[in-house]
């Protein structure tokens, strides 16, 4: 593998000439001007990413990054930390929500252990988990940095490696990000607050469903972690290492990898978008390859989309993660590819354009 820096610096913005060409082509379709709205925007984005007027997104893959969080000992989640492993078991038996939803859209699910607190040998042997663990859960960010800078960088490289695997083994043409890890809404809200300047109290939500007392505690824990560690918003690796998580680094890597290899990437909920903020901070060209999957119920999520200048495709009241919203958004992206591939122009269809 190359160094992280070489991936980050080589990410190019979308080709302007292809953007224009796709735009002009879509304007010839036998429909009132741009009347398929956002679907046309996505069709244009797909064409510019793949540099063709016939983009294909047939081979789809959800890359789900899993990790644990030392900060769970502060009582920030409704669940005990062992639920991460129980959910890995459920995913391995294909009984999780992402299995059900990814199946409907014919997407593969790749589960990557980037920082789960225990060894997952049985699942690795079964072939249901990819063992790229950087650490056995992060350290408690209320007491010090969650990770070292080196661990944070390694977690990002795991995400890039996962994209390479999806390309090499599954010929992936469209990737969605997913997360799993009890406690991960806490680092996600911390990253959100640090990177967007929003107050912790305004962007911290109930995650798995905590009550008011726990929510107040969660806010205090995040405030304390930021005060103690002083993450530098201009240094995304510093933010990720001090108040982030292994799977958030992994997701940032998936997004960087997709941008590097020119693959459209659908970003899921709060945790995935925390990864997107890190990726964007490392190279703002990454946003050209992102598609905002959905709007989570978590109160801070929209601030993230706003700071990336993206509009979420779906608003379904989801607050789950795993890549569930992104998987459903794959239907819309497939629709966009179908439009640019199959809708005829006014001329080809023999339809008279309006004045
Ligand atoms: C059964 C179950 C399945 C999940 N799948 C995703 N999450 C999501 O919820 C957790 C984050 O919320 P918090 O920060 O409050 O712990 C993560 O595991 C995330 O992936 C789940 C949570 C549970 C309980
Ligand atoms: O939006 C998300 O990704 C989310 C929200 C709550 C719990 N887990 C994930």
From TrEMBL:
Enzyme Commission designation: 2.4.2.21
Enzyme class of the recorded protein, top EC level: transferase
Organism superkingdom: Bacteria
Any GO BP: cobalamin biosynthetic process
Gene3D superfamilies: 1.10.1610.10, 3.40.50.10210
Catalytic residue list: 322
Keywords noted in UniProt: Cobalamin biosynthesis, Glycosyltransferase, Transferase
Keyword check for Nuclease: no
Associated pathway: Nucleoside biosynthesis; alpha-ribazole biosynthesis; alpha-ribazole from 5,6-dimethylbenzimidazole: step 1/2
Reactions listed under catalytic activity: 5,6-dimethylbenzimidazole + nicotinate beta-D-ribonucleotide = alpha-ribazole 5'-phosphate + nicotinate + H(+)
MF (Gene Ontology): nicotinate-nucleotide-dimethylbenzimidazole phosphoribosyltransferase activity
UniProt keyword Glycosyltransferase present: yes
Pfam family of the protein (one): DBI_PRT
Role played: Catalyzes the synthesis of alpha-ribazole-5'-phosphate from nicotinate mononucleotide (NAMN) and 5,6-dimethylbenzimidazole (DMB).
Family according to the record: Belongs to the CobT family.
Official protein name in the record: Nicotinate-nucleotide--dimethylbenzimidazole phosphoribosyltransferase
UniProt gene name: cobT
